[in-house]
Amino acid sequence: MGFKCGIVGLPNVGKSTLFNALTQTAAAQAANYPFCTIEPNVGDVAVPDARLDKLVQIGKSAQELPTRITFVDIAGLVRGASKGEGLGNQFLANIREVDAVAHVVRCFTDDDVTHVEGRIDPVADAETVETELMLSDLDSLERRIVPIEKRAKTGDKESLASYQLMSKAVNLLREGKPARAAVLTPEEREPYRRLGLLTEKPVLYVCNVDEVSAATGNAQSERVAAMAKAEHAGAVAISARIEEELAQLPAEERADYLASLGLEEPGLNRLIRAGYDLLGLITFFTVGPKEARAWTVYKGARAPQAAGVIHTDFEKGFIRAEVIAYQDYVAFNGEAGAREAGKFRLEGKEYVVQDGDVMHFRFNA
C-alpha cells in the first residue's frame, strides 16, 4: 500500500506548481488566476528510498520496484466554499477520498502573483480553509445525527455508539476545533474514520517559500511551523518553483543544482517522509533475483498483515516470516552472509514489522 495525499489550499498559493513538480508532468495547469484546476488531477509517483537502490545492488535484482504515493491536486478553496462559493462543495467531496491533506500555504511575496484575499498571511490562509472544512463537517453531521439519535433512544446499541462518536465530533466543531482533535479509544478510531469527516484527516502544512528560503525557511514558514506544532500536525518548507525547475533537469544535473542552492535533496523526499511520519507508515522490502521491491505498512503492523499487503492469500495462509534487518542485510552483503552471521530470523504471527526489514513469507496456498 502507498497512500493518497490531497493537495489543498487557497487559489494561487502554488498547489498546481507543486503538483506538476512532484509528478514531473504538466497535467495540472498552473496559471495566475483562481480555479485554474477544475477537476482534481491525480499523479502517482515513486517514493525515493536509497535503501532500495542498495538492496538492488546486493541482491543483483533485475528490477527495482519502489512503493508509490498518489497526489491529488484539488482546486483552490475560498471563503464560503462550504456554502457553495467559488466552485463549491464538489472539491470538498474530493478531500473525503484521500488519506491525508497536504495543505499548501503561501510563504512568499511576488507582486506578479495575485492573492485571492489581497494579502500574504499563511496562518490566516490556513484558518480560512480549515474553517470551511469544519463548517462542511458540522453541516454534514448535524443532518446525519438526528435520525441516529432517535434510533439510539430506542436502545439500539449500534446507533448509540454512532451517536456518541458523532457527538464528540459535533462538540469539537462547535467549539471551532477540527474533528481530528477528538480523544478516542483504539476501538473508536476506525468507526470514527468512517464518518468521513474532512477535518479528521491528518494535516501536513506545506510552506511554499521563495527560492532563497528553500534551505532554511523564512519568518512566515516559522509561523506556520509553530501553528502546526500546536495542532500536533506536520510542517515542511518547500520552494515549489525550485521543485518545478528541478523536475525539468536531466537526472545527472539535479545534484549540482540542489547543491548550488544549499539543498541536500529534493523537497519531494522531505514531503514524503513528513507524510509517512504523519500517517505512521513504515517500509519493508522483498529482495530476489527478479526484483527488489518496497512495500508500505502502518507502524505496529504484524507479520501476517505485511504478508497481506503483497497478496491476501499470504495473510490467510501465513506460516512464518523470514526476516533480516536492513542494516544486517547490507553489512553481511545479502541473505547468505546474514545467515552465516546468525542475523537471519524466523518470526511468527506476533512479530511486529520494523522499518527496513527485508522479508519473505512462508504460507499455505
Spell out the blueprint of helices and strands:
Elements: E1 3-8, H1 15-23, E2 41-46, H2 50-59, E3 63-65, E4 68-73, H3 89-95, E5 100-107, H4 122-152, H5 157-174, H6 186-193, E6 203-209, H7 219-231, E7 234-238, H8 240-248, H9 251-260, H10 267-279, E8 281-287, E9 291-298, H11 303-310, H12 312-316, E10 318-324, H13 326-331, H14 335-340, E11 345-347, E12 358-363
Parallel strand pairs: 1-4, 1-5, 3-9, 5-6, 6-7
Antiparallel strand pairs: 2-4, 8-9, 10-11, 10-12
Helix pairs in contact: 1-8, 4-5
Question: What does this protein look like?
Answer:
The strands form 3 sheets. Strands 2-4-1-5-6-7 form a 6-stranded mixed β-sheet, with helices on both faces. A 3-stranded mixed β-sheet has the order 3-9-8, sandwiched between helices. The chain has a 3-stranded antiparallel β-sheet with strand order 11-10-12. The chain has helices at residues 15-23, 50-59, 89-95, 122-152, 157-174, 186-193, 219-231, 240-248, 251-260, 267-279, 303-310, 312-316, 326-331, 335-340, and strands at 3-8, 41-46, 63-65, 68-73, 100-107, 203-209, 234-238, 281-287, 291-298, 318-324, 345-347, 358-363. α1 runs parallel beside α8 (240-248) and α4 (122-152) runs antiparallel to α5 (157-174). It has 14 helices and 12 strands. The protein has 365 residues and is an alpha/beta fold. β8 (281-287) and β9 form a beta hairpin.
